[in-house]
Amino acid sequence: MTYRFYALIARMRYIGRWGLMRNTFRENVQEHSHMVAVLAHGLAVIQRDVLHQSADPDRCAAAALFHDASEILTGDLPTPIKYYDPAIQAAYKQVEAVSCKKLLSMLPEALQGSYEPLLNESDPDVKTIVKAADKLSAHIKCLEELKAGNEEFAAAAKQTRAALEQMRLPCLDWFMEHCLTAFEQNLDELN
């Protein structure tokens, strides 16, 4: 029997993000998932090592790698549609759940139990950090587009910044205070 799960995961690179926006550089779901994993890991490390609160950086990173896996089968629904109406949002959540179930069925039964919590994250602490990292990744994309002179992302930058501030998550607040402005710097300034 051939299991198709990993081959489909590899296809995340073909799913574009920000489809309704003019982009200076394109971002795909695989690149986004990697950055969300880096950020989720970082936020959890900050929570554990700087703020001395419980967090599992490895679990957060793994969950973040798979947080958009359902989009392999559904595609990336633009944010203005996804969040336009509570009924659409609920229906999309159902579509995502069906997609995750389908992906799990493409694994050997012995592996499904290991991947199910990653595709359907149930730990509220992990879920909170991954959600923050996801929004942070979107905000960083906006900052990078603005840095490249693309004003198309100005409103999105303000919206994502406001959403991040409303989360009131101490590890996220720490990251925004100590790390976020570096994303606005060029390579010479980073060195």
What do the pLDDT scores average to? Answer: 91
CATH superfamily: Hypothetical protein af1432
Largest sheet: none
Question: In percent, how helical is the residue content?
Answer: 55-70%
Q: Helix and strand string, N-terminal first?
A: HHHHHHHHHHH
Please mark out the parts with pLDDT under 50 across 5 or more consecutive residues, or reply none. none
Q: Which fold name is given in CATH as the topology?
A: Hypothetical protein af1432
Q: What oligomeric state do these chains adopt?
A: single chain
What's the number of domains? 1
% residues in beta strands: under 5%
Calculate Rg over CA atoms: 17 Å
Rough shape? globular
Task: Please tally the helical runs, counting DSSP H or I stretches of 4 or more residues.
Answer: 11
Could you tell me the number of beta strands?
A: 0
List keywords for this structure.
191 residues, mainly alpha, Hypothetical protein af1432, 11 helices
